[in-house]
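Support request, priority: normal
Reporter: lab tech (M.K.)
Component: structure prediction queue

Hi team, I submitted a job for S-protein homolog from Vigna mungo yesterday, and the status page still shows it as pending. I've pasted the exact input below so you can check whether something in the sequence is tripping the parser. The sequence length should be 156 residues. Please let me know if I need to resubmit or if it's stuck on your end.
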Amino acid sequence: MDSIWKMMRIVCWVLILLGEHIKGGESINFNKKVTVKIVNKLHSSKIGYPALTVHCRDKLHDLPQVTLKYNEVFSFRFLPNIFAAVTLYYCHFQWPTGNYHFDIYVQERDYDCNDFLCYWKIAEYGPCGTIYDGSNSTACFAWGKALPAKNFTLSS
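Reply from support: The job had stalled in the queue. We restarted it manually and it finished. Here are the results:
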């Protein structure tokens, strides 16, 4: 009898967690991977088109370091946490005149990006990504800041 009550409590907790995950009638997609794409958009009259070294990780995964030429893309895929918006990937970006960190995927901010594709352009003034709030505007973040600095239009 005791084991039945324990099982019932576990089932109740799972249902509560699933209920918390479903917001506004959204369906849960247990196997939908997020793809993060990072493109080197570094360019200035002082440094030309420098190579960008990128090293990304989360608390469990340390991705290989890559070096991108101008307009080259690095991408990686993962399954976000389905029970709580706690998935976080952060990257270290380095080039001859810059050395910065940025939280490239914050589940609460980037939950489904653009059908689970998060696209980031890395520029000297900061990383720029699309805000998927219906406006599809570009938000650029100043290096070392948590809030968008200003909106920029980047050439592709």
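The chain has one domain: 29-150. The CA atoms of residues 32 and 79 lie 7 Å apart. Let us know if anything else looks off. Ticket resolved.
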